[in-house]
Structures are given as structure tokens and as C-alpha cells.
């Protein structure tokens, strides 16, 4: 059975599921409080105040996660140099300049190649794009 590799959102890769779940829940909760304030017959200023507090709190947490967790983890654990010159098998082929995916060092990576690739080809990492999740590869087999 041939299973297509799932494309992972760069947002998920950068921030992680847990961080995004917390931020989404806070945004939904703030929106719920604001909607409840406008839909309730009585104007409960407590609901309005809570929603006003939670929106900036969500933005502050987003920035804090970005500055601390994400940047520190990428700097500490993601060393681009460790992938250079590694080879792997193409899982999803691509045409010139479009994204494909390959298994390199037992992990699935998106890549862009300067030649057409097909499933089963061997590629070698020659660089990493600025997004830190897409590799530049060359076809070697």
C-alpha cells in the first residue's frame, strides 16, 4: 500500500500543536465573552472587561512563545549543518522548482530540487531555505 506523506503546515512546524491550541482556545474564549456581552439582554461589563483583557493576553502570549520557546528551540536543537550532504529517498516526486518530500535521516522533509524527481529517487541535501523546513537538494540517483 502506497501512503502519501502528509504535508505539514509551516505554522505547525514553527510553533507546535500545543502552543497553537492554547492560543486558539484563548481567542475563542475571548470571542465567546464578547459575543455573550452583546447578545445578553443586560450589559454585563464584567464580560466586556474579560474579553478586552483576554485579547491582548493572547497577543502577548503569542509573542512570548515566539521569542522564547520557538527561537530557543530552533537555535539549540535545529542545526542546519547536520543535514548538509545527507542523502535520502524521495517519497513524493516533484518537477523543477516545486516542492516534493523525501525521507532524510529518518524524518520526512519538504524539498525543492533543480531537476525533476520521482518516487524512489535518491537526493542529497545541498542547502536549507530560510523557512528552515524546506531543503534544497540535488538528485544523485
Description:
- It is a single chain.
- Helices cover 44% and strands 23% of the residues.
- The chain has helices at residues 10-15, 17-39, 45-77, and strands at residues 87-92, 99-104, 107-113, 122-128, 134-139.
- The chain has a 5-stranded mixed beta barrel with strand order 1-2-3-5-4.
- Strand 1 and strand 2 form a beta hairpin.
- Helix 2 runs antiparallel to helix 3.
- The mean pLDDT is 81.
Order of helices and strands: HHHEEEEE
Low-confidence stretches: none
Compute the number of helices. Answer: 3
> What's the total count of β strands?
5
End-to-end Cα distance: 24 Å
What characteristic shape results from the CA principal axes? elongated
Helix coverage percent: 40-55%
- Main β sheet profile: 5 strands, mixed, barrel
> How many domain units?
2
Short synopsis of the structure:
This protein is of the alpha+beta class. It has helices at residues 10-15, 17-39, 45-77; strands at residues 87-92, 99-104, 107-113, 122-128, 134-139. The protein folds into two domains: 10-77; 81-139, Nucleic acid-binding proteins (OB fold (Dihydrolipoamide Acetyltransferase, E2P)), CATH 2.40.50.
Amino acid at each position: 500500500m502506497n501512503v502519501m506523506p502528509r504535508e505539514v503546515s509551516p505554522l505547525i512546524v514553527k510553533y507546535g500543536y500545543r502552543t497553537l491550541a492554547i492560543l486558539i482556545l484563548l481567542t475563542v474564549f475571548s470571542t465567546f465573552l464578547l459575543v455573550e456581552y452583546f447578545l445578553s439582554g443586560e450589559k454585563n461589563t464584567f464580560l466586556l472587561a474579560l474579553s478586552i483583557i483576554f485579547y491582548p493576553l493572547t497577543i502577548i502570549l503569542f509573542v512570548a512563545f515566539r521569542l522564547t520557546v520557538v527561537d530557543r528551540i530552533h537555535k539549540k536543537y535545529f542545526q542546519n549543518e547536520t543535514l548538509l550532504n545527507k542523502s535520502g529517498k524521495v517519497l513524493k516526486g516533484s518537477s523543477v522548482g516545486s516542492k516534493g518530500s523525501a525521507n532524510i535521516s529518518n524524518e520526512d522533509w519538504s524539498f525543492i530540487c533543480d531537476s525533476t524527481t520521482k518516487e524512489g529517487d535518491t537526493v542529497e541535501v545541498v542547502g536549507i531555505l530560510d523557512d528552515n523546513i524546506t531543503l534544497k537538494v540535488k538528485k544523485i540517483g
